[in-house]
């Protein structure tokens, strides 16, 4: 894998000569499935040009075919442009083409800890020390990404934000409706429950649910209060199946 350093001179540099792998070019062209007149303004080794359907046009500055002097309208531009003048190149592309597909230099690389060994990751990371490229690692069986922009700075930890269905308003409404339906069914049995040993407790819990002071099923949060789970009202039954004895 080769990366070209961008510069602000406004002119292409030798580092801009980065040939695209033919298999990669073929995959990109097949993915977008272009039709109409196609143009590769930086033909190079013809990786994109050979994969394009006809009619097609190729330009190559090393052959005296300057893209900035080309003004004919085309339907598609698919190319690997010179990164040092990428902005100007892209602006001219939009002037003459309806659709533009452009390979852009990588500024962030994330290695998969599942698919790439640690030794190989370390070896590859050494290649990017002199480039403006951030390197991070996604460990296997983890929802986090770790990495640092510099070997002299501590790494950062990026985690996936977990959103529980129970924290959504519409799910909470469904839970409340279910609480009321169960409470109404229990009210029918209330004359029977009152004569049971725990009848008074059941009746008090039933009324607490009806008035929205409790929910039938809930869970205990850590004493610290720090939890990703949404906070619920006091419960009658814990999710583990334990009956809550308190009348409060």
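Sequence proposed for the structure above (248 residues):
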């Amino acid at each position: 894998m080769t990366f070209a350093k961008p510069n602000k001179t406004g002119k292409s540099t030798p580092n801009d000569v980065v040939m695209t792998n033919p298999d990669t070019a073929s995959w990109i062209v097949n993915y977008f499935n272009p039709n109409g007149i196609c143009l590769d303004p930086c033909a190079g080794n013809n990786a994109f040009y050979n994969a394009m359907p006809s009619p097609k046009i190729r330009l190559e500055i090393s052959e005296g075919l300057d893209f900035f002097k080309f003004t004919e309208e085309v339907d598609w531009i698919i190319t690997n442009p010179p990164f040092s003048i990428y902005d100007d190149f892209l602006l001219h592309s939009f002037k003459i083409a309806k659709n533009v597909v452009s390979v852009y230099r990588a500024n962030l690389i994330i290695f998969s800890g599942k698919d790439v060994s640690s030794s190989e990751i370390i070896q590859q990371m050494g290649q990017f020390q002199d480039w403006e490229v951030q390197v991070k690692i996604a460990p296997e069986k983890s929802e986090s990404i770790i990495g640092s922009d510099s070997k002299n700075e501590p790494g950062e930890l990026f985690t996936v934000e977990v959103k529980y269905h129970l924290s959504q308003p519409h799910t909470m409404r469904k839970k409340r409706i279910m609480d009321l339906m169960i409470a109404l069914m229990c009210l029918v049995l209330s004359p029977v429950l009152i004569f049971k040993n725990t009848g008074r407790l059941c009746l008090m819990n039933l009324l607490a649910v009806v008035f929205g002071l409790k929910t039938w099923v809930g869970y205990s949060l850590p004493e610290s209060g720090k939890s990703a789970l949404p906070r619920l009202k006091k419960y009658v039954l814990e999710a583990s199946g334990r009956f809550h004895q308190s009348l409060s």
